[in-house]
Amino acid sequence: MDKQAFWNLLEGLDPEAAGGELAERLDALEPEAIAAYQRHFDEEHARAYTWPLWGAAYLMEGGCSDDGFIDFRYGLISRGQKVFESALADPDSLAVLLDEDDFLSNEEFGYVAIEVYENKTGSQIPRGDFEGSSDPSGEEWDFDDEDLCAAKLPKLWAKFGG
Questions:
Q1: What is the domain extent for residue 99?
Q2: I need a labelling partner for 47 at 20 to 30 A (CA). Which of 14, 53, 67, 138 fits?
């Protein structure tokens, strides 16, 4: 499975039922393809580990812990390539791409391939030796600094800020 096949699997998932829909799609694949999907998922999840995106999550969700940001990135991937790539290029674009009542965090979505693989094979999914960075990329800032958040993410601040 290449990167485009990975994104094709995520195309058009219903945000409210993304985990179940993905499970059905993955269940139709061979175990090797499910493991390849998980490798791409891990890579994209790590790529989204940025301070600007964490700032966006903080504003959109009224705060965002380490674990919350993991779940936020899971949910961001579930929205497909267009939303994901737009958010990485410009986290402020989420103000336009999503409605005010959209909730991105989706913890369950991060475990779908692992569960499908284990149910199908009876063994753990091979994860390889991939390790993401232990620190987010980009410039760190104080998400509680309203002026800084308004300057860095003006559209999200206008929609979700103080």
A1: 16-124+139-160
A2: 14
Number of domains making up the chain: 1
- Domain-embedded: residue 5: no
- Amino acid, res. 59: L
Q: How many CB atoms lie within 10 A of CB 7?
A: 17
If residue 157 lies in a helix (H) or strand (E), which one and from where to where?
helix 154-160
Q: Which long-range contacts (CB under 8 A, 24 or more apart) does 117-122 make?
A: 117/26, 117/31, 117/34, 117/35, 117/38, 119/27, 120/27, 120/31, 120/34, 121/31
Three-state SS at 50 = strand
Q: What's the pTM value of the predicted model, to 2 decimals?
A: 0.93
Structure tokens, 161: 């800020």
**Would you give the distance in Å from CA 148 to the centre of its chain?**
24
Could you give the 3-state DSSP secondary structure of residue 63? coil
> Which residue type does 43 have?
E
Tens-digit pLDDT profile for residues 25-67: 999 999 999 999 999 999 999 999 999 999 999 999 999 999 9
pLDDT one-digit tens code per residue, 77-92: 999 999 999 999 999 9
